[in-house]
Amino acid sequence: MLIEANALSDPDDLKxxxxxxxxxxxxxxxxxxxxxxxxxxxxxxxxxxxxxTYLRDAVTTYWHECGTAKMGRDPMSVVDxxxxxxxxxxxxxxxxxxxxxxxTANTMAPCVVIxxxxxxxxxxxxxx
Length: 128
Prior knowledge:
The protein is mainly alpha-helical.
């Protein structure tokens, strides 16, 4: 399975990443930090198209992926309100992928709630 996150697919995201590198360069090259900095290690002296290529090749996430199997009722939804996958009998999704938006805090707590609700749905289905 391949998950294509489309990182930096929006031109504004790439502009923001370049701006971030430029800001960090300003900070790292400031008079106050000069005694502690020998050189820029990454991305080095890259600018323009070379910097864009570097950023596209280096972009990754260390955060928790979510929102890849949307819960809802519209044509783009993957699971229903009971976490059942549309069109696949006996399959539920009970993780951060069903979240329509990432939470502002760590995703662990919402995932626990999703798991607890999944357990309740499964028990209810087997008790009836």
